[in-house]
Give the backbone structure.
Amino acid sequence: MTRSKRRLGRYLRPFLDRTGKTFEQVAAEARCSRQTVSRLFSGEHLPRYHLFTALLAVIAVTDAERKRALELWEIANTTSVNIEYAGDLAPNYTRFRMDENEAELERALDTVLISGLLQTPGYVEAVASACRPWWKGALDVELGVAERRDRQALLSREGRPLRLHALLDEVTLHRSVGGPAVMARQLDHLLEVGTRPNVTIQIIPFTAGAYGAMSGPLSLFSFPEHDEPDVVYVESLAGMSLVDGDQDVISMAAVWNAALAAALPADKSAQMIRKVRTAL
């Protein structure tokens, strides 16, 4: 399922509701299966062009609605997000990766570990060895490192690098993941990547106290299209969960903004990272 397909399904749904027809009725009139119809409107499947135009006729869209629907069909038909190692990832995490690939801005909040887009290979190995729940089968540390490297390529993607604004709790700098040598390289990496124009790293200091978002990782994605709503993913022991209800996304954005208000400026954050690194 790609975001462009979900976007098309979301666009078409009000027209279906307007007709009062069921999936079964639409399928019968268009001479296709009910599953094909339900998967179109849920954003899981893109019918071939001729079937799609037939479905538009069945739900009686106007000329203007038909034109926009065909534009969205073209976008969905040409958009291909290839996720390496997808067969080894949990479905919700694969969906997270697909949305991350299509996003223009990611706002991350991490209260326990360094954000995944900022982790060094040694850090990833140490985290993977602690049995993170993203893998379907047996733990494969090398695969974990390769998957994370594939993600991080988004930050240097040609033409449209992902913009990242990461908020890290100070505890992430002091937790010795992988030991002192691994952490030294990790903190050096934070200082380096933080100088890139598309990356902002801010630290939430211990002195901030409780700031309302201390339960786990949070990622908010914004997309290039002005009419495409933000989506949020939260992570727990049960894995990655999508939050896409309008009010829920607004609430999660408020949580991130509250954490931002508690964070040090980027330059002061770099000074803190450098101080912790020197102490190692």
